[in-house]
């Protein structure tokens, strides 16, 4: 299994398209950091417009933690596309290249092949998020320093003590890895039905966009659907920035995401084991 | 003369694809240590059969045994001893020839060192291009790399699906020589498909010809292409009844598939005897003519209709 996974990782990281995601993430983060470094106070004044009328907040408001939180809020919506770019290619891309028949005619089980491919996709997903964490948190702390974190909610402003923030980021990034692995498993699932990677990538994004719209719109009919939409649970990384953290809610969402991963992966194995490989 | 061990044994193999029967009751055996040709025109069911031999496609019914073992239950053990190039030699274009070969060796369950990998690449004439990406390769180079990938784990059986497709004359000759070398000098067995009789004729010891998923003929190439045999075209007042009579007579073994009328495969000096038997049985013979040689007959079975029409004109 490890040997198969290492081969899959070798293929992923030798493929130029893999690095599109890393370059895209680095570009966005560096641009946001540059913009906030140059004119962050103006942005902060705009964001705090309503708060400033009532409160006077002293201290280093524009710090690494705040910058990282701002980046995460913006970027985590777009990362699924970058994940789908690789996950959607895992089986459909091989079918398109004609290499799937090479793999499936080797003395390895089809289930083992699927699991190793998914393991490699998960490693890629984790690597992408570690890279994102290093840039958005590590570099932001280096550039902007640390201080208390202001978190703007719809009805309140939460200020978290500087000493009480770093572990929350570890939790949030850990949760984001799980959420993005769910996206990867969805793209992987769609990949087993396709013979080129464009279909699974676009389908994954379409499903996420549709579910996100249903999640964010406050309409009674949609509200009843929300508990069943994995996109609703994907956003619960924000739960780590509540005070106190509602662990029950965070764990429930994590459990639902894990259940989705297991379900999607089981379907892939079931379908792939029975599939006639004609590509 | 000693009996050769059976390497592939296929029994009543059937494959249906959504209402289309691609392979229809195919049975054949392939002996060890020879080149076995698998001939049929495009769409005859060759690739589907090969995919079933490699577990890429699941048969609708029938059984396959390789090395005397059931392919379904002993898949891993069997596939370790099989190397294959299926249709186009598609490989990872963004990887080098060396990396492709190394990956294929590991997937085949063998650990191969750098020296062995380079030796294999040199054997197929790609030693100088070992570290070039496959996307820069010509069709012929890809084909040779595909064959290197099929051979890297030293398999006993090599399955090649249309290995000369898209190659220039020199490339075709190289592949042909490599196949003969593998069988004669390394004791391998090669199962090779083609839609060209001329190709199979040059390298195969035995062959199976299929059309529309069914067997048309099988046997030793030298016997099947016996120049003293001919195809006799027969037309009578009632072809269906005549066919029934022939099937029940000594001529049954000479009946050959025909698109129109009745065809028999037999030595030319037996034609008068056939005629006497037909008349004696009360068959009204409208015409009985020796149409063409066996080679022409097989060509007509393994070439597209348009091609045959053009050839006849």
Structure in words:
The complex is a heterodimer of chains A (279) and B (313). In chain A, 71% of the residues lie in helices and 3% in strands. By secondary structure, chain A is mostly helical. Chain A has one domain (2-274). Chain A is elongated, with a radius of gyration of 21 Å. Chain B has two domains: 6-220, Rossmann fold; 226-312, 2-Layer Sandwich (Alpha-Beta Plaits). Chain B contains twelve helices and 14 strands. Chain B has helices at 46-53, 75-79, 97-107, 114-123, 139-151, 169-186, 197-203, 221-224, 239-247, 271-280, 294-302, 305-312, and strands spanning 6-17, 20-31, 35-39, 61-66, 69-70, 82-85, 157-161, 189-194, 206-211, 214-220, 229-236, 255-256, 262-267, 285-293. Chain B has a six-stranded mixed β-sheet with strand order 6-7-8-3-9-10, with helices on both faces. In chain B, strand 1 and strand 2 (20-31) form a beta hairpin. In chain B, helix 3 (97-107) runs parallel beside helix 5 (139-151). The longest helix of chain B has 18 residues, at 169-186. In chain B, 38% of the residues are buried. Classes of the chains: A mainly alpha (279), B alpha/beta (313). The A-B interface holds A 3-4, 7, 10-11, 14-16, 97-99, 101-109, 274, 276-278 and B 17, 51, 54-58, 75-80, 82, 84, 86-88, 90-95, 99, 103-104, 106-109, 149.
Strand content of chain A: under 5%
Number of helices of chain A: 13
Question: How many runs of DSSP E, i.e. beta strands of chain A?
Answer: 2
Task: Work out the largest interface and the residue count of each chain.
Answer: A-B, 24 and 32 residues
Percent range of helical residues of chain B: 25-40%
The end-to-end distance of chain A, rounded to whole angstroms, is: 25 Å
Count of individual domains of chain B: 2
Proportion in helices of chain A: over 70%
Ranges of chain A with pLDDT <50 over ≥5 residues? Answer: none
Radius of gyration of chain B (Å): 22 Å
* Average predicted local confidence, pLDDT of chain A: 89
InterPro entries (chain B): AAA+_ATPase (IPR003593), ABC_transporter-like_ATP-bd (IPR003439), ABC_transporter-like_CS (IPR017871), P-loop_NTPase (IPR027417)
Protein name (chain B): ABC-2 type transport system ATP-binding protein
Organism (chain B): Cnuella takakiae
Family (chain B): Belongs to the ABC transporter superfamily.
């Amino acid at each position: 299994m490890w040997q198969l996974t290492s081969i899959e990782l070798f293929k992923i990281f030798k493929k130029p398209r893999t690095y599109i995601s890393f370059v895209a993430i680095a570009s966005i983060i560096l641009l946001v950091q540059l913009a906030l470094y140059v004119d962050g106070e103006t942005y902060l004044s705009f964001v705090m417009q309503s708060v400033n009328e009532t409160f006077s907040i002293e201290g280093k408001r524009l710090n690494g933690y705040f910058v990282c939180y701002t980046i995460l809020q913006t970027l985590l919506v777009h990362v699924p596309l970058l994940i789908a770019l690789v996950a959607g290619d895992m089986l459909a891309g091989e079918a398109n290249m004609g290499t799937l028949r090479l793999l499936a005619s080797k003395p390895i089980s089809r289930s083992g092949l699927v699991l190793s491919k998914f393991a490699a996709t998960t490693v890629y997903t984790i690597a992408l998020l570690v890279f994102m964490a290093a840039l958005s948190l590590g570099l932001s702390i280096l550039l902007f320093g640390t201080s208390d974190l202001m978190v703007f909610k719809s009805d309140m402003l939460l200020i978290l003590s500087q000493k009480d923030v770093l572990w929350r980021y570890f939790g949030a990034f850990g949760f984001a890895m799980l959420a993005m692995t769910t996206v990867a498993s969805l793209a992987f699932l769609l990949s087993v039905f396709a013979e080129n990677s464009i279909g699974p990538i676009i389908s994954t994004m379409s499903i996420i966009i549709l579910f996100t719209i249903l999640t964010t719109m406050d309409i009674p009919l949609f509200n009843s659907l929300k508990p069943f939409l994995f996109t609703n649970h994907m956003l619960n990384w924000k739960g780590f920035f509540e005070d106190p953290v509602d662990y029950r809610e965070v764990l429930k969402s994590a459990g639902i995401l894990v259940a989705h991963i297991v379900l999607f992966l089981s379907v892939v194995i079931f379908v792939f084991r029975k599939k006639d490989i004609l590509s | 003369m000693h009996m050769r061990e059976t390497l592939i044994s296929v029994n009543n193999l059937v494959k249906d694809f959504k209402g289309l029967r691609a392979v229809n009751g195919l049975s054949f055996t392939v002996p060890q240590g020879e080149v076995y040709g698998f001939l049929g025109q495009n769409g005859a069911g060759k690739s589907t059969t090969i995919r079933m031999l490699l577990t890429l496609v699941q048969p609708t019914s029938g059984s396959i045994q390789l090395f005397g073992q059931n392919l379904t239950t002993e898949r891993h053990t069997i596939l370790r001893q099989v190397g294959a190039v299926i249709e186009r030699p598609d490989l990872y274009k963004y990887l080098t020839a060396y990396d492709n070969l190394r990956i294929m060796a590991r997937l085949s369950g063998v650990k191969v060192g750098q020296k062995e990998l380079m030796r294999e690449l040199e054997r197929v004439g790609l030693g100088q291009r070992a570290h070039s990406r496959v996307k820069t390769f010509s069709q012929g180079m890809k084909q040779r790399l595909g064959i290197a990938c099929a051979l890297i784990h030293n398999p006993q059986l090599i399955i090649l699906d249309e290995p000369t497709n898209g190659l220039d004359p020199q490339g075709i000759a190289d592949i042909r020589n490599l196949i003969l070398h593998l069988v004669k000098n390394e004791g391998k067995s090669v199962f090779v498909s083609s839609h060209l009789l001329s190709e199979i004729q040059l390298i195969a010891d035995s062959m199976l010809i299929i059309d529309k998923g069914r067997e048309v003929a099988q046997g030793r190439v030298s016997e099947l292409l016996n120049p003293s045999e001919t195809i006799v075209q027969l037309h009578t007042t009632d072809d269906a009844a005549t066919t029934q009579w022939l099937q029940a007579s000594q001529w049954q073994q000479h009946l050959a598939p025909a698109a129109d009328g009745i065809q028999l495969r037999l030595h030319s000096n037996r034609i008068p005897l056939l005629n006497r038997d037909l008349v004696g049985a009360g068959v009204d013979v409208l015409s009985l003519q020796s149409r063409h040689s066996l080679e022409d007959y097989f060509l007509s079975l393994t070439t597209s209709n348009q091609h045959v029409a053009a050839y006849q004109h």
